[in-house]
């Protein structure tokens, strides 16, 4: 069964679709011979139309044939598919050229399904795979990114993982119809459900994006966002952690963060810091390390603002990474303002 929607009688057809119907009626031998007379651009358009056409009712075929001056009522319906397009093309194009054209069309038709799956949280993907037959799971694991597959496989259990690897090793080419069925199931049952969590993912992305913005740019945006979406923006701000927030870290915690960066990152970051924050950094270091850092900062000469911002961003990212690993605890930002 073709996974594309059948053509409807009253929907206006494009020129490429009408030509595709004619070629399908002519059959592989005659259609292939005629297609040789076309240029590559025309071949591509007609091939795309054939591949996406699906079932074409006899009434539609008749209407198209009238345009070409022929009566086709006795011909019946026809079916367009990737395989039908392949049969026409292989009569006059090399096999690798046929594969290239059809791969391009298949990619544009399916979108970046496997890439989208690879970006999903591995627990969401694993919950779906647990309910599927091992052969289906093996197919999916061969198409998603290797790093995602490596996260998912252990979650399925060792016994099942061994069977899946055996199936992947022995796997041959999968029929196109079977692959399309798997793709449709993944879109419907995995990506659609994952979309329900899109709000949380969007919020996470905004937090990361705001953390990397230039402070003056962020201040300008903040004024407008606080006016237009005050509640939503407050939630996002509470989850942000910026360079200035490092002053809230205790000396021992801050020293851990500083050890995570190398080279000139630390002196560069402090060259652009407020005095209070810079003093807090220096006070968190042993005397010898503090003297060496101050000397390095004095000897640096003029520095570019963008280099300072990048260095500060690296320190923030180091703090966030250590917090995610449970090594340190960051200020929550949830506390209400207090009045003494």
TrEMBL record:
Residues 13-112 form the Flagellar motor switch protein FliG N-terminal domain. This is Flagellar motor switch protein FliG. It comes from Pseudodonghicola flavimaris. It is a peripheral membrane protein. FliG is one of three proteins (FliG, FliN, FliM) that forms the rotor-mounted switch complex (C ring), located at the base of the basal body. This complex interacts with the CheY and CheZ chemotaxis proteins, in addition to contacting components of the motor that determine the direction of flagellar rotation. Gene3D superfamilies: 1.10.220.30. Residues 123-192 form the Flagellar motor switch protein FliG middle domain. Residues 224-330 form the Flagellar motor switch protein FliG C-terminal domain. Belongs to the FliG family. It is found in: Bacterial flagellum basal body; Cell membrane. Keywords: Bacterial flagellum, Cell membrane, Cell projection, Chemotaxis, Cilium, Flagellar rotation, Flagellum, Membrane.
